[in-house]
Here is the input.
Amino acid sequence: MEPRLILVNLLLKLGVAAAVSSTLVRSLEFKSLLFREERTLRQKIYLVLWFSLPITIGVWIRLSQKSFLAGDLSFETTLLLGVIGGRWAGSLGGVLMGLPALWHGEWAAIPFLVLCGLISGQLRSMAADKDDIWSFSPFIDLSIYRLIRRNLPKPRLFDWQIMFFITVLALRFVEIQVARVFPRSIFVLESPENIWVEVAIYAATVIAIGIELKIFNSVRTQIKLEEQERLLLHARMEALQNQVNPHFLFNTLNSISSLVRFDPDKAREVISKLATILRRLLNSSEAFAPLREELEFIDNYLDIEVVRFGRDKLRVVKEVDPASLDVVIPCMLLQPLVENSIKHGLSPKVEGGSIYLRSRVTDSRLIIEVEDDGVGMGRPQSGNGNWSGMGIGMANISERLQVLYGGAARMSIDSHEGRGTLIRIRLPLVESASSVPEGFYAGRSSTRR
Here is the structure.
């Protein structure tokens, strides 16, 4: 073949390598198989099929069309399968990609590809740090520079990337020699009379492998960043929720300490309700819960608050749409809202007052309202001008909604001095799988006395 045609095919091969790898990483299933450190036998088979089938088709096109030689990436793909999936995956992939060649008389293709899979798989097992596989670069001078820097403080002659680079070149050399000794037994591109074209053939092999690994590694890095972001948000949510729970716990313990002296029976009752609340908090590791469960939690919480304020000072009216009961909301969302109404609305009011809990579903959104007829927040309650109602609990609710929903959730506060405060939360509608009993909580009102 003319040197110019060989160079054209080499360029096309690099394009095919980039196109195939970019197409594969669009599949979620392929990515889940590719970026595992340990794989079951079935997962290894699936990984081999994902890699091998497109290249097997390319080999078949090369043999049948006799013109599109760049579609044959069996050598490079076998090495990739070996270093990513291990010896077994590399060998099986070599067999599959060599079958069309064997069918057309290239009998040395399968034994050679199996050898490549075994050797590259062995190199994978020798890698002390698996990140070296994903960060492989065809620019060997960078690996040599890293090797020298590593050896300055503590000599270590083995460098995985240099070994893989040398192995790729050595196996390509062996393949070319087999093709020369046994013509038509295996397919290779070669140009013995032009040394620069020969160098380009070796370079294209290394670059094709490097391109695919770079594409895979970029997706792997993106997945890692997304996972770190998810873990960061999860940790942030836990920190916010852990600020809410002690805030409620300390107030309840103060009430119990007051009851122990003059009403031990009532203290035991409150402790029992507190134990029920804490059991739910400790047993639940989820960030979300149905509104139904949050209302049950609030019932226990209000039973405790009635003990603190007296039976005639705290009245609760519920107006709950049954369609809203199974809507999923953030855990511990209602308790800080109710606590805010009690602490900053009704507590300063001598005769007490009422709290209204409302929920409804409208326009694919859940509306939750907590209203009180207390003293309101019409004036700053502290010297620095901050609203006393926007304490730790309310600030946490606002931040939790921002973390979980971004701009899709809104919380508004409408307060009038001497007339009370209305807190309204709008959330995206998320339904649970459980059914809603007809009429449950519908229009229900309760007065605690």
